[in-house]
Amino acid sequence: MPPCTQAFLAAVWLLLLMLPSNSQAQNDTIPPPKKDSLQTPSPIDTPFPGHSSSTTIIYSDEIEERGYDHLDELLAAVEGVYITHDRTFTQIGMRGVSPTSDNNQRVQVLLNGLPMNNPMTGQAPSGYDLRGINMEDIERVVIKRSPGGIDQGNNATLGSINIVTKKAKQGGRLNFDTGSYGELDGGFALGQRIGKTTLGLTGRLANINGQELYIPGDNLLEKEAVDFGGLGFQLQHSKFTFRANYNQRDEQIAGLPNEPILIDTDGEPDTLGTFYYFRNRTSDPGRFKDRQLYVDFGFASPLRDNQFIDIRLFFNYQKSQTATFFRDSETDELPLTLDVPYIEYSVDEEQENLWAGIAYQHRIAFSASHQLQFGTQLSATPRSKFKQDAALVRHFDGDDLITEDFWEDVVDYFDQLRDPFENYDENFAYWSTNFFVQDFYQFAPFLAVDAGLRLDINSLTDPVLAPQLALIITPFQERTTLRLGYQRGYRLPTLEETAIVQTDNALPNDDLKAETNDSYELGIQQRIGDNTEIHLTAYHQEIQNLIAGSSMTNDPRTQNSILQNTALQNAQDSTISSTGIEGGLGFKLKNGIKTYFNYNFQFNRKEKLNMPSPLCKFGVSLPFLTHFSLYTEGQYEGSRRSATGNSTLSFFLLNANLRVQPKLAESHPLAKWLNRASFAFRVFNLFDQFYQHPVDPRQTSQGLIPQNGRAWQGQLTFLF
To answer: I want to staple 550 with a disulfide (CB 3.0 to 4.6 A). Which of 313, 488, 571, 634 is the partner?
Structure first.
C-alpha cells in the first residue's frame, strides 16, 4: 500500500474518532505537575516559566498507555525529533540536524538531572543503550528541542532529554514481555518502607534473537542477537536520596557489506607504485559489549518558604568493548591475474571511562513574578582509557602465486599504515567546571523577560560562554503567549578529538574550539477552552565551528581505500544551518478520547544531510468498554539524503497498542487479583512499511540501512 494511501486511511480513522463529541484539549508542551504523580517535581526540576513550547513532557501513564518498550520508541513520537538507527547505535536528530557520523554528541541525555554523555566521545546513550531501564520505572521524560546551554551545558547543542525515574513505594510489580524476533523480556520492581526510610529495587533481563537483515545491493543477511539487562536501587530518607543504576548490553554486530579497497605496496600514495587490489571487504558478525553504572547521592530541601536547594554527588562508570573480523578478497572484475582469494584481519577496541563530581542548584522566588536560579557543577575524569589492537592473518584458498617476501612487505605496510591508531593504549585525565545564572522577571501582566548566562571552564579547551534571552508576551489573560527568544548551545571538543593521537598526525588537536549553536525562535501558543491548545514556532539555528574529520590527501586512488579511514585529521571548516517551522494541536474529548497532531517542515532540505521534511506525527487514545483502551500513533517522514548522495523513500508508520486493565467492583470475588493485572498487545509498523535510515557510508555502499518491518509485542503486568 503506497505511503500516501496509508496516510489517507489513518487521517480518516482519526477524523472518525474525533466526531462523537465536542473538542477539548491535550497540551503537548508543559502541563502543570500532576497531583497524582508518584514523584512531584521539585521547584528546581520544574522548567522556568520562560521556557518555550519546544519542551515536551511525557508522563508515566502516557508511557504505559502507548506501550513504549524503550526510549527510542518514545522519542520517535515527539514533535521535531527523529531517529537514525544503524542497527547498533542510535543518533537523535532535532529540528533537521543529525549528521550520520556525529556519534550522537549534540544531544545531552540525563538520568534524574545528571548527564550521561560519554566523556571520551561525547556520545549520548539512547534507547538501545538504556534498555536495562524498565519503561514502567520511568516517571516522566522531559525533551527540550532547542539548545540548552544555560540549564544543561555541554553537549546540549540541539537539545536535551531528561529521564526521571519513579520514587520507590511500598509494594511491587512483575512484568513479562514476548514478541517478534524471539524476544523474551522480564522485569520487576520492589519497594519496602521502614519508618521514614524507603528502599526500592528494580530490574530487567531480556534476550532478542534479532531480525534477518537484508541490504539490497550489498547481499548482507545477518541476525543481530542481543542480550541486555539492568538493576536499579534507591534509598530515600527524609531529604536524602541515594540512587544507583546499572545497565549492560551484549550484541552481535551485523557484518559490514562489500566495500572496495586498495593497498599501495610501495607506501607512496603520491607516486605511481605497484597496486594490488582486494575487493569485497566484508566483516563477519562482531560483538559489542557495553557496561554502564550511574550512582548519585542527593540532598534537596527548602531553605525558606521562597528558596530551594539541590545538592548532588555523582559517580559514573562506562566500559565498552568491540570485536570485529574483516575479510578482503579479490574478484575477477579487476585487471589483475594474481590469485589472492582473501586476506583476514581483526580489530579489537576498548573504551573505559570513570568520572565523578558535585552539582549544586539554588532557586529563589522573590515573588510570583520574579524567580532566580543559579548553580555550579564540578566534575573530574581520573580515568578515560582508549585501547585498540589490530592483527593481520594470512589465509589463501587456491594457487599461492605470492611469494613469502612479497607477503611480508604487505604485512609490514599494513602495520605501518594502521599504527599508531589501531594498536593504541592510552589513559587520559581532565576536569571541568561551570557556573550559571538564570533570571525570570515579569515587568507587567503581559510582559516578562527570561535571561541567563553560563560559563564552562575545562582543562582541555578555552572557556565557553552561553547566553540566553527571551521576551514572553501574554496579552489576553494567558490564553495567548508570544515568545521571541535567542539561546546558545555548545559542545566542547572531546578527548577523542583533542587528546587521542590521530593516524598520520602525531600531534593532538589541542587547538580545537567548542562548537556553538545560535538558535532564534518566534513562537505562539493559543489555548482554546480548558484543554485545547494550538502552537506554531518558526526557528533558525546555526551550528558553527563544526568538528569533522577531513581527508589529508586528495589522491583519487585513496578514495576507496583503507587510507580513507586512516588519513584523517580533525578540522573546523564547516557550518550546519537549519531553518523551519513546527506546529501542532492537541485536545481531549469529554468521553476520554485524546488526540494530538504535530507538523515539522524544514527549508532547503535537499541541500542537507539526513534532514527529513516534512515530519508529521499524530496520536489517538480511545478508551472503550470500561476495561479497554486503544492507542494509535502515526508518523509520516519525508525523504532524507545520505552521505553517498542516495535518498531514502518517504514512508508512513502506524503503530497500535491495545491495553486491557480490569476495573471490577470491589465486591467482585476476582477484583483483588484482576484489578492488579493488566495486559497489553502492541503492533509496530502495522502496514509492514519498508523504510531505511541514512548511515555512515563505510557501513553500506548505499549509505542506507533498512529498519524493522512489522513486529508485535505482548506484555503481562501484575502489581502486588
So the answer is: 571
